[in-house]
Design brief:
The protein starts with 5 loop residues before the first strand and ends with a helix. The chain is α/β, with parallel strands linked by helices. The chain has 9 helices and 9 strands. A 6-stranded mixed sheet has the order 5-6-7-3-8-9, with helices on both faces. The protein has a 3-stranded antiparallel sheet with strand order 2-1-4. It is globular. Helix 5 crosses helix 6.
Length: 255
């Protein structure tokens, strides 16, 4: 029986340069059950983005296994099972909100006329109704990220991979987007893996936080998040939230 959700087992990746060898990932194993939300956090250079690229099929591990809903990343991409959102929204500046959301459908060669209702559903889901014909240059940073998320979800993916999607936003807007992403995830229930540098963001959004150390890049601990959903903005000020944030920070810093 093939594992569901996101499944990584014994993943290793080494980069060999002229003068040094970097062990980017060492024996990384992580299982994210279907419809779960996992945050991956660690210092710069610990291999978080490398792991994300491997999960996307953009890089091949030296050894180990990666499955997304029971198939390889390449197979999952080919049939539209993966949604992707990065820090750079990477919207096409000459395309409207609606037409940017169409991009994955274009790549998969899906007839747009069959997805008209789905595209509008995604626009409504991310709160951009009324902005369907706006160009990226007419949108705020937060709105552009909403378009990016809508684009990631338009194929109804089973798996959502996100690499610092709110990293370029200010703290106030970032927390607002955390609340919005929680709502969107609750409606879609896509199995989600979020790479982030933000401890508070990781705790607020996820079911559990996987913590990485560098040199070599490896997962050193996984912390279950005890807070009930839906989570409100007030949780950021809760004493238990702060205690958990300190606990994760101490593990991050090797204490």
């Amino acid at each position: 029986m093939k594992p569901d959700g996101i499944y990584l087992a014994g993943v290793n990746k080494i980069y060999k340069g002229r003068s040094k060898t970097v062990e980017a990932l060492k024996d990384v194993s992580l299982s994210c059950p279907t419809s779960s939300f996992t945050a991956l956090i660690g210092p710069s250079g610990c291999g978080k983005s490398t792991l994300m690229r491997i999960a996307l099929g953009l890089e091949t591990p030296d050894s180990g296994k990666v499955l997304l809903e029971g198939v390889t990343p390449a197979e999952a991409t080919k049939i539209g099972k993966i949604g992707i959102a990065f820090q750079d929204a990477a919207l096409l500046p000459w395309r409207s909100v609606r037409r940017n959301i169409e991009v994955p459908l274009n790549v998969l060669r899906k007839p747009i006329k069959d997805y008209t209702a789905k595209i509008q559903e995604m626009i409504n889901l991310v709160g951009l109704n009324g902005f369907e014909d706006s160009l990226p240059g007419e949108l705020s940073g937060g709105m552009r990220q909403r378009v990016s998320i809508a684009r990631a979800l338009v194929t109804t993916p089973k798996v959502l991979l996100m690499d610092e999607p709110f990293g370029a936003l200010d703290q106030i807007l970032r927390r607002q987007m955390n609340v919005e992403l929680q709502r969107i995830w609750d409606e879609t229930k896509a199995t989600t893996l979020l790479v982030t540098h933000g401890i508070d963001e990781a705790i607020f959004l996820s079911d559990r936080v996987a913590i990485m150390h560098a040199n070599p890049g490896k997962i050193v601990d996984i912390i279950d998040i005890p807070f009930e959903r839906p989570r409100k903005m007030s949780l950021f000020s809760d004493t238990s939230f702060h205690k958990l944030s300190i606990q994760i920070a101490e593990i991050l810093h090797g204490q």
